[in-house]
Specification:
By secondary structure, the protein is an alpha+beta fold. The protein folds into 3 domains: 60-206, Potassium Channel Kv1.1, Chain A (2-Layer Sandwich), CATH 3.30.710.10; 242-347, no CATH class; 357-477, Apoptosis, Tumor Necrosis Factor Receptor Associated Protein 2, Chain A (Sandwich). The longest helix is centred in the C-terminal third of the chain and has 20 residues, at 327-346. The strands form 3 sheets. Strands 4, 8, 9, 10, 12 and 13 form a 6-stranded antiparallel β-sheet that branches. The protein has a 4-stranded antiparallel β-sheet with strand order 5-6-7-11, with no helix packed on it. A hairpin with a 5-residue loop joins strand 8 (419-431) and strand 9. The protein has helices at residues 2-12, 23-34, 47-52, 62-72, 92-95, 99-105, 128-136, 150-160, 163-175, 182-191, 195-208, 215-220, 223-230, 241-256, 264-280, 298-301, 313-322, 327-346, 357-363; strands spanning 79-83, 86-90, 116-118, 365-371, 377-379, 389-395, 398-404, 419-431, 437-442, 446-451, 455-460, 470-477, 495-497.
């Protein structure tokens, strides 16, 4: 018997659920309870430990149960909704969360007593998948919306008057604005009344149209959208206003040749070839915008600030060569600029001293610069600026304006007036890979008086916040509007906000 007991004990050790343990196993378990044993033991679990160790088990929530049982399975349904060739077995008590169905089931509408309702879907954006999500949102606490499906779901939510789902669609759109989605989102936001989404799309376009030019985006931009962008004082321009005109040439070419599929670097060359061919077909004295093909683009080109295009000789020659713009437009701008120059030379116009914000936004020069990495930079924007040679410096996190008169060489004439005034607004921005702002600063609209060779610190930056590449955009007004000109300069230099 003793031998049999030994064999039974030996066989029980190391076997899960064994009834007999060796002395070593027992002692090991004691050590594990007291100080944590590192050896492996397959002995029976300690009952106290099992009772005090929490076990994770995910319970089915009420929301999931309702969604699965009532919506997906249609149990205890009291109404059937039919639309787009599909049926849903639903429940009036849940459908009444929708303003659409709440109105339908109340009052004297015939549908209030019907158990089968045929829905007419007038919106082509709505499909069965969007309806599935919209109906399902009535039975659950959370809804996952794919960006590729958000417009269709938004359309269904608006039709069914589901305010919570509409709001969630809006948040999804704001979070996923990219070059691929911005035009579609902008149009849909206008259609379905999401003003905050439309505003964010417009801001994205103003920031990215010129800073991150895209063939795909230019093809999608409608005439109305492009007109709104070009006329805005908030358009982030790189480098000068001539680049806005150049971008419009490329955009016009793509609108008329949507199948063009080359790289963005080749776009301008191909657009110029097309423009030259179009010019050969024009009658004497006509421009492209005078033709039936060009008339739709006329409202957009009208907002190019031509006074800052013809102030550079090379740019003026290109505009004349292209023959896109009507000659009377250019004649009017030449006349305007000539009188502006005479006022600064002979009528003591020292610049804008009382210009208000509205005048500044309408008349200011738009220009910009990209700083690829941190370092020291100094530049000037090309063009005739009425004798105001403005040097811009970025160094040691400072941005400085300097009115250069005698200290630095200048290729053009320089005003020797003791004091000159400018109105300006300087903005800084950095973007992530999708074009969203990750950093921005602005001076707001300011008036500044500078004496000869005087410097002025425009902005002092915190290096911890800077993200490169850094984009700088400036609006400048060098002359005062004729009806608001002030002949006598102010008694002291100053920088102050515009009214």
């Amino acid at each position: 018997m003793g031998g049999l007991s030994s064999r039974l004990g030996a066989s029980a050790v190391g076997r899960p659920g064994g009834a007999v343990e060796s002395r070593h196993s027992c002692e090991c378990r004691k050590r594990k309870r007291n100080m944590g044993c590192q050896c492996d033991s397959d002995g029976e679990e300690d009952p106290d430990r099992l009772l005090n160790t929490p076990l994770r088990k995910k319970l089915k929530t009420t929301s999931k149960y309702i969604y699965q049982t009532l919506f997906l399975n249609g149990e205890n349904s009291d109404i059937r909704i039919c639309a787009l060739g599909q049926e849903w077995n639903l429940h009036k008590v849940y459908l009444c969360q929708s303003g659409y169905f709440s109105s339908m089931f109340s009052g004297s509408w015939k549908e209030s007593s019907m158990t089968v309702i045929e829905l007419e879907i007038p919106d082509q954006n709505i499909d069965t998948e969007a309806l599935q999500v919209a109906f399902g949102s009535l039975y659950r606490d959370d809804v996952l919306i794919k960006p590729s499906r958000v417009v269709s779901i938004l359309a269904a939510a608006c039709m069914l008057q589901l305010d919570g789902l509409i709001q969630q669609c809006g948040e999804t759109m704001k979070e996923t604005i990219t070059v691929k989605t911005v035009c579609g989102y902008y149009t849909s936001a206008g259609t379905y009344g999401l003003d905050s989404v439309k505003k964010e799309c417009l801001e994205w376009l103003l920031n990215n149209l010129m800073t991150h030019q895209s063939v795909e985006l230019m093809k999608e931009l409608s005439t109305g959208m492009m007109e709104q962008l070009v006329k805005s004082p908030d358009l982030f321009v790189m480098q000068v206003e001539m680049d806005v005109y150049t971008a419009l040439k490329k955009w016009t070419f793509l609108q008329l040749h949507p199948s063009w599929n080359g790289p963005v670097k080749q776009l301008l060359a191909d657009a110029d070839v097309w423009i030259a061919m179009e010019k050969k077909e024009l009658a004497e004295g006509m421009s492209f915008l005078d033709t039936p093909e060009g008339i739709p683009f006329l409202p957009v080109f009208r907002h190019v600030r031509l006074q800052y295009v013809i102030n550079d000789l090379a740019s003026a020659r290109i505009v004349e060569r292209d023959a896109i713009l009507p000659s009377e437009w250019l004649s009017a701008v030449y006349k305007h600029q000539w009188f502006a120059m005479l006022r600064t030379e002979h009528d003591s116009d020292t610049g804008p001293q009382e210009a208000n914000k509205e005048e500044f936004e309408l008349n200011s020069m738009r220009c910009g610069r990209k700083l690829a990495k941190d370092g020291d930079y100094c530049w000037r924007w090309t063009g005739f600026n009425f004798g105001f040679d403005l040097l811009v410096t970025y160094t040691n996190r400072f941005i400085v304006f300097k009115r250069n008169t005698l200290s630095q060489p200048c290729g053009g004439s320089v005003s020797l007036q003791p004091r000159r005034h400018i109105a300006y607004r300087l903005r800084l921005a950095s973007f992530d890979g999708s074009g969203k702002l990750v950093f921005s600063r602005s001076t707001g609209y300011q008036l500044l008086a500078l004496e000869k060779d005087q410097e002025y610190v425009v902005m002092n930056l915190d290096s911890r916040l800077l993200v490169f590449p850094l984009f700088i955009c400036c609006n400048f007004l060098y002359t005062s509007p004729p009806n608001r000109r002030v002949d006598s300069p102010e008694p002291e230099s100053s920088s102050r906000s515009l009214s």
